[in-house]
Amino acid sequence: MNYLIKKGELTKYEVDERMLNIFQSVYVIDIFNPDKLNQNGIYRFGRISSHGSVYLLIKFDDQIEIINDFNYDAIQNKVENFLQLEANEFDDHIINKYQEALNKWFENKTY
Predict the structure, then answer these.
(1) Is residue 56 within 8 Å of residue 29, measured between CB atoms?
(2) CB 65 within 8 A of CB 58
(3) Cα–Cα distance measured from residue 39 to residue 42, given in angstroms and rounded to the nearest whole number
């Protein structure tokens, strides 16, 4: 929420006013598997709106790192390092799906 406020996607007033219902305005979804939630992975998130920006984060061992503010090479390195750390969890098919989804995100940043 704080990141979306910082980016101007939400206001502190909106969050304070809606408190429990604010999650109806924000989404977090795995970049290739929408059924996956709260597990290690790469997620896109943003405000549910027709013209909102889409942001990326990596969730790993209950830590979250927002990665879209880095340049292309830095994001690629962070994703590659994450996928190497998760090599025991993710098979080649899943790794390829993450890489394809990341490439789509880079193409239009609204995927």
Answers:
(1) no
(2) yes
(3) 9
Find the farthest-apart pair of alpha carbons in the chain and give their distance in angstroms, rounded. 45
Contact 30, 41 (CB under 8 A): yes
Written as one letter, the residue type at 42 is: I
CA dihedral 20, 7, 108, 102 (to 10 degrees): -70
Cα radius of gyration rounded to whole Å, the chain: 14
Question: What is the SS3 assignment for 43?
Answer: strand
Burial of 41 (0-12, 13-18, 19+ CB in 10 A): buried
Structure-token match 């927002």, residue found = 66
Residues in the chain: 111
Q: Which two tokens stand for residue 9?
A: 């996607």
On whether the pTM is more than 0.90, the answer is no
Tell me: the pLDDT tens digits for 20-68? 676 778 888 999 888 888 899 999 998 887 677 889 999 998 899 999 9
